Amino acid sequence: MNAIVLAVSSSSSHSFGKPTRTSIRLLKGLGIEGDAHAGTTVKHRSRVAKDPSQPNLRQVHLIHAELFDELETKGFAVSAGEMGENVTTRGIDLLNLPAGTRLLLGGSAVVELTGLRNPCVQIDRFQKGLMKAVLGKDAQGNLIRKSGVMGIVLEGGDVRPGDEIRVELPPQPHRPLEVV
Fold this sequence. Notes:
By secondary structure, the protein is α+β, with helices and mostly antiparallel strands. The chain has a single domain, classed as PK beta-barrel domain-like (M1 Pyruvate Kinase, Domain 3), CATH 2.40.33.20. The chain has helices at 45-50, 65-73, 122-126, 130-133, and strands at residues 4-9, 20-21, 24-27, 31-32, 60-64, 87-90, 102-105, 109-116, 135-137, 143-145, 149-155, 157-159, 165-168. It starts with a strand and ends in a 12-residue tail after the last strand. Pfam families: MOSC (PF03473).
């Protein structure tokens, strides 16, 4: 199966979920046009409170739709945009890509992965028990955060559902994604 954009979402407010759109426009160095998290410096309220001058490594939030499939087997109903992501993907193992991976979305947009999303208490406010469901453990007992990846916009462009996603891995040695 080819990797595709399943849905795109954005919101001008700092709400937990984001409404799905027919398209979004990625802006080089900023994020999603009109989205509350767009900008060169951090926009997530908890990070702004600590240091508003930090670079925004969370311009674009991507989640794999396979997570929604997994959550459904656990009794949760989650749709595109409801966990605050801008791009919902299918057919790509986002969590196991290395830091610095470039995702080419649609005709011209390029997002470079910066790290993992760290799920917060808002997830349980959305659906009780969901926080635990988006966390797991690997064979060595290490915490696995399943709630998506974050990135920055290297090249702008319009992105729509159905667009192909192409992957460019960074040079070796690869570094695993860490929380940003």
